[in-house]
Amino acid sequence: VRPAQARTWSAYRAHDNVARSLRAVEAVVRHLDAVREAESVILESASKGVTAYLDAVDNLKSAEDFFTSKRIGKAGDDALKRVDELLRKAAAELENEFSRVLSECSKPVELEQLLKCLPSRSSAKDSAESQPNPGAVLSLPTLIDPRYVPRLSKLAQKSVQLGCHKQFVKIYRDTRSSTLELTLKQLGVEYVTAEEVQTAQAESRDAKITHWIRCLQIAVKLLFPSERALCDQIFEGKHAWKDHCFAAATSKSLLNLLSFGQAISKSKTSPDKVFLLLDMFDRTLELQSEVEAVFAGDECAENRKSASTLVKCLAQAAKKTLIDFKDSIVKESPKNTSTDGDVHPLTSYVGNYIKYLMDYQSSLKLIFQESSNGDGTKSGLVSEISGLIHAVETNLDVKAKQYKDHALGILFLMNNINYIVRSIRRYIKSIQLRETQEIEISLIGWNNHFLVLSSEAKDLVGDDWIQRRRRTVQQHATQYKRVAWGKVLDCLSAQGLTSSVGSATEGIAGSVGSIGSHSSTTSTSVIKARFKSFNKQFEEVCQTQMNWAIPDKELRDNLILAVAEVLLPAYRSFLKRFGPLVENSHHASKYMKYTPEALEQTLGNLFAKKLPQ
């Protein structure tokens, strides 16, 4: 029995060994067959059937794992070597297919398609002027036919298994980068240097800035988000790759787009340039949050830095432009004055300049880093505005001293300071007010005007700025009356005409008070000489000042009224007391040429030059 059992057990073990061997051989044969089947597919082009090609790659990867984990001998080694060769060929073919599909599908986005993505747009002829509505929800343009996106995604995912994902990333970066550059080029965006901007004409430069702002909005709101979405779809689940691919694909286009802003900020400065810089600063700052969102992630840090650097450069350029303008005002030639005391072109320019600056309050406050510490000190912006005004006033003081006629110099100062006050006043009247405060303004003190100021506008010119300028204009008006009309009023003084003159109160700014009765010692010839002197002085002043200019009708009327309020009472008093000595003499009209009414009418002709019709 025992020998029979031994033989049976040996037969059983032999059968089991044979069965195991057959199973092992069967697995080897199955994988060898899979390699042969995959080989026939791999040797073909992937474009004939991507799904079948990817399945063949999967089979080869499975065979590679099998032959790597099993010790089969020379046959296994030969099979593994062949599998590796086929996988290398498959990787190259998949790269070619990825590149081919991506290149064929990547076309520059047409302008018309971009306009369709906007919530509202003008007609086709105005397409170049269209721009996104900041508060509207935009639909992103289609960069690649959606039918091919799954194929590209599968190819990209397979590159991970084959260890060739770096080549895929490079293909994606190069293809999408060049396509995005072409799209922006169609919009008129190319790399620009500061020298190219500097040589451009002012009109051309301004138009380009407006166009650049619109292109920046389209890129940030439409093109870059679309690129981000496409990258996320193709490299789904690979966050590091997605961010890297997106950053690489958009970096050059972003630099081209920002280069124009950088060039403008570095180009030669001029006073008017500040408004262009502020417009660009406003738009780039408005888009900054969207830039931060679309370029999120560590891989996009340089892109975010490039955008934020431009904002800072524009701010610094605007700040420098204002400082340089202030310095140029101080250096303005003092000999450049008007012959009639009119508002100087520099004054009107600066007045309008400050008015336009007030439209950029929020931006300027950011640029000058205004703070509300409540410590009573002036903020950076207020200091700059005050500095501009002070520079003009300093320059005007020097110019006023160039006039040989002191009265004309005073009139020049009064005209120019009045212009600055009224320019700011007109602006304040035009703005919509939220917080209001009523203050009384009187330019020279004759009429009261009530003006409502918003707290923001009030802060810009200073709490008591208008009141102080009002007092300055009042002082110039008083000084003008004394200097211009002092000699005329001296002729109406009773001093020297009688030896018994009662208490008289006359002065340059006052009237001839009550003059005592003239005595018999008063000579008629002296009275005639005084009337004659008055006529001569009055006519000379009027003849001269008819050619002087006060362009502000309200200021002109008030100043004439102020002169009349001093001159006419003095003349009536003089005429009443001393006229009887002359009126019965020969040629009395030669001396008593004017009635009070005639004087008033003549005064009305003063400062008529350049008076608005």
UniProtKB/TrEMBL annotation:
GO molecular function, one term: phosphatidylinositol-4,5-bisphosphate binding
Highest rank taxon of the organism: Eukaryota
One Pfam entry name: Exo70_C
Record keywords, A-Z: Exocytosis, Protein transport, Transport
GO terms of biological process kind: exocytosis; protein transport
Entry's Gene Ontology cellular component terms: exocyst
Entries under InterPro entries matching the protein: Cullin_repeat-like_dom_sf (IPR016159), Exo70 (IPR004140), Exo70_C (IPR046364)
Family: Belongs to the EXO70 family.
Biological role stated in the UniProt entry: Component of the exocyst complex.
The protein's name in its UniProt record: Exocyst subunit Exo70 family protein
Organism: Aegilops tauschii subsp. strangulata
